[in-house]
């Protein structure tokens, strides 16, 4: 079987979930988030683009309802022993199949938690689910249960993330020789992703972000490539990925002469990231981390050029995004605690001068100072 953790690791995760369910008086949970299924059982698929659900009872019993295409996937990649299928056909409503399964599991009239806040349950399927369960039992939105458990990484998970961080560094090393006048964005992307694949890594949960010239101010991937000029700017945001665990990095590289504005923005980004590192310790909150970033940006007169969030948790994630919760934004009360893997990014976009500057890396929180997982320093990269 293609399991990436020992059985004892999965048993411990199941036990943590069962305890949490007991505290919330849940007789069962309906898991639709692929991250939850992977974390709990190792089940590895992109088949969550269709209707599928992992039912977890209060005693830890698990049953997966999925399509025929994922039957062998579940048996080969997970600890799930009981796999049921709903059939693709005209007029199929798998929510009915799920209700019948819940009835077979003696859950009629019980208190059931549902993961609603996930791309694995579309609004269309969510409505069909609610129609079937509205008289079946007491249904509670339990979307935050497993994400809260996944926030704290086990030693085995930290090993995966550390390997992912090394692959992220390898990707930057592969890109740097290609970042020059006439350099092709397509070749840069190919080198970065190739380094990760060659190192035994995986596809990221979202596309790498690349943009040069005016497009260096974009925070999302977009189609289209260009070649670099003698004096240019290139923004990259990417992640090393190992067994779906992500370690993200972000840099804006300056080509040619460093402008006064680029230098100003870099110094602000560096100062802000150092302040964030200082705040990323037990006793502080995610909101405190954001405030540390915001204070530096304000001191540099850049409040209107910054974003309203400056990072987030990372872990094992699936399409369409490697971003995990919680995030660094104003007022977030979630406490910083040891054994979190957190990505902090300083993003400054001056649209008036079309100047971009970014700086970001992934950290492991400890009992004391946060530990950067990248071997690269925070110096401005000039080519």
UniProtKB/TrEMBL annotation:
Gene3D superfamilies: Creatinase/methionine aminopeptidase superfamily, Creatinase/prolidase N-terminal domain. Keywords: Aminopeptidase, Hydrolase, Protease. Pfam families: Creatinase_N, Peptidase_M24. CDD domains: APP_MetAP. Residues 162-366 form the Peptidase M24 domain. Residues 13-151 form the Creatinase N-terminal domain. Coiled coil: none annotated. GO terms for molecular function: aminopeptidase activity. This is Aminopeptidase P family protein. It comes from Aquibium carbonis.
């Amino acid at each position: 079987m293609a399991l990436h953790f020992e059985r004892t690791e999965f048993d411990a995760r199941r036990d943590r979930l069962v305890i949490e369910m007991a505290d919330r008086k849940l007789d069962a949970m309906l898991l639709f988030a692929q991250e939850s299924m992977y974390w709990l059982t190792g089940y590895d698929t992109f088949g969550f683009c269709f209707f599928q659900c992992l039912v977890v009872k209060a005693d830890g019993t698990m049953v997966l309802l999925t399509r025929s295409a994922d039957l062998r996937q579940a048996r080969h990649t997970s600890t799930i022993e009981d796999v049921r299928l709903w059939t693709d056909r005209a007029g199929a409503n798998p929510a009915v199949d799920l209700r019948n399964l819940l009835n077979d599991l003696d859950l009629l009239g019980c208190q059931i938690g549902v993961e609603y806040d996930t791309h694995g349950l579309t609004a269309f399927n969510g409505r069909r689910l609610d129609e079937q369960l509205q008289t079946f039992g007491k249904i509670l939105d339990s979307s935050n249960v497993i994400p809260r458990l996944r926030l704290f990484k086990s030693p085995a998970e930290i090993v995966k993330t550390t390997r992912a961080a090394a692959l992220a560094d390898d990707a930057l090393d592969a890109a740097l020789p290609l970042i020059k006048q006439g350099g092709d964005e397509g070749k840069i992307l190919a080198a970065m992703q190739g380094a990760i694949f060659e190192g035994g890594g995986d596809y990221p949960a979202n596309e790498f972000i690349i943009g040069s010239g005016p497009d260096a101010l974009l925070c999302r991937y977009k189609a289209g490539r260009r070649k670099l000029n003698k004096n240019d700017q290139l923004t990259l945001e990417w992640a090393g990925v190992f067994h779906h665990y992500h370690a993200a990095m972000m840099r804006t590289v300056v080509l040619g002469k460093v402008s006064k504005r680029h230098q100003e923005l870099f110094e602000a980004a560096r100062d802000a990231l150092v302040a964030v590192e200082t705040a990323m310790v037990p006793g502080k909150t995610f909101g405190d981390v954001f405030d540390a970033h915001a204070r530096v940006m304000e001191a540099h007169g850049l409040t209107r050029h910054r974003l309203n969030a400056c990072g987030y948790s990372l872990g094992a994630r699936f399409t369409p995004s490697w971003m995990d919760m919680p995030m660094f934004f104003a007022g977030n009360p979630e406490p910083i605690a040891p054994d979190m893997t957190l990505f902090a990014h300083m993003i400054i976009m001056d649209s008036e001068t079309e100047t971009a500057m970014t700086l970001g890396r992934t950290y492991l929180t400890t009992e004391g100072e946060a530990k950067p997982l990248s071997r690269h320093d925070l110096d401005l990269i000039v080519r």
